[in-house]
From TrEMBL:
UniProt cofactor note: Binds 1 FMN per subunit.
Protein family (similarity comment): In the C-terminal section; belongs to the PPC synthetase family.
Source species: Acetivibrio clariflavus (strain DSM 19732 / NBRC 101661 / EBR45) (Clostridium clariflavum)
One GO term describing the cellular component: phosphopantothenoylcysteine decarboxylase complex
Identification of the protein by name: Coenzyme A biosynthesis bifunctional protein CoaBC
Location of region: Phosphopantothenate--cysteine ligase: 220-434
Keyword Magnesium: yes
Enzyme Commission (EC) number: 4.1.1.36, 6.3.2.5
Keyword Ribonucleoprotein found: no
Residue ranges annotated for the Flavoprotein domain, each copy included: 35-208
Pathway: Cofactor biosynthesis; coenzyme A biosynthesis; CoA from (R)-pantothenate: step 2/5; Cofactor biosynthesis; coenzyme A biosynthesis; CoA from (R)-pantothenate: step 3/5
Amino acid sequence: MYRKLEADYNFILYVVQISLGMIKFSGEVFMLKGKTVVVGVSGGIAAYKVVEVVSRLHKLHADVNVIMTENAAKFVTPLTFRSISHNPVITDMFSEPAKWDIQHVSLAMKADIIVVAPATANIIGKVANGIADDMLTTTIMATKAPVVFVPAMNTNMYENPIVQENIKKLSERGYIFLEPETGLMACGTEGKGRLPEPQAIVEKICKLLCEKDDFRDLKVLITAGPTQEPIDPVRYITNRSSGKMGYAIAAQAQKRGAKVKIVSGPVNISPPYGVEVVYVKTADEMYNEVMKSYADFDILIMVAAVADYKCAQIAEKKIKKKDEKLTIELVKNPDIAKELGKVKGNRILVGFSAETDKLVNNACEKLASKNLDMIIANDVTQEGAGFGTDTNIIKIIKKDGEIVDFPLMSKLEAGDRILDEVIKLIGKNGVDNK
């Protein structure tokens, strides 16, 4: 009862403030003209604040379409959002549509971005586990547009390991999260879990729609993960690569508008949403797939930790223990980046150099010998920069000798910084492979 009364009071206050012009809207008036924003409202008390989010988006000339869950309609009426957005509000998956189309498919296809605010633990959990049982979750599943979750819930609920695991799972798949704020909660406690201010939410939407569209019309080919070189039917040679760095770059490139393909070695992570993935095992398989595909791409980013050597002969049956020593003859694998360097034309070719010593010297040697445009070097002996972590510490070294150092950051952030430098190279050199 307390929550409902507080929601009613705050909602009325917001509507009055918006009507009287007491809440100001920053930014260019036509900033979002031509953009379709789908706002998904789930059942949290912070739903009343989303009225202002929709109003701000409409004032920026976005085409705003609101989907409400059944519980959300208990906090704010659909009529309110319809009046503010000037569009029908969808609440029922099986209601008669205003015009004939399959609504979740129609909205999913025309959306430039989907924003879920407030994003409850329930809606996050559903999407993380592939449940699509209402119009909002179904639309999210059907879209290829960026999806932004804006969590708002009780502090203890937000910090619950299951909720955090679901957030991490979705983040790794390319979904975007706007961190909740810390403050007094509706339940009377204080902590992290408050919905960010409407202005912050709208600014995030504007940034994603207007500032990170720089890879649109570009095609990016990325290799990721380790390779496995068989010794016999049950054993193989491999390395510690998890594929997280390559997948992070792919997720960020896709968010920025690129068409992305990953050629991936064996990994235990899910691919980013909207990214094509071809799985391979051996270095030869990866080489063949890359050389078959590279001509269709503008940017080639070789992140995979490809095994340098493979067995000269692969045993047809499991090798049994006999002697104290076992000698296996190894031969070199193809150097994929080096072969691309010979045929890349005007494409941008980026390599990676994971080292344990002489970081810059070794990376620069690879940069020159493989005809790379840029190489990302990291010292895998540093804490937080090795294989399998969610973070990295990178140096970006360019062909002209410029070195850009970055501190410890998440691999998703590092992926964005790498793409920032790639786009600078495109602006300087251009790409024309048609």
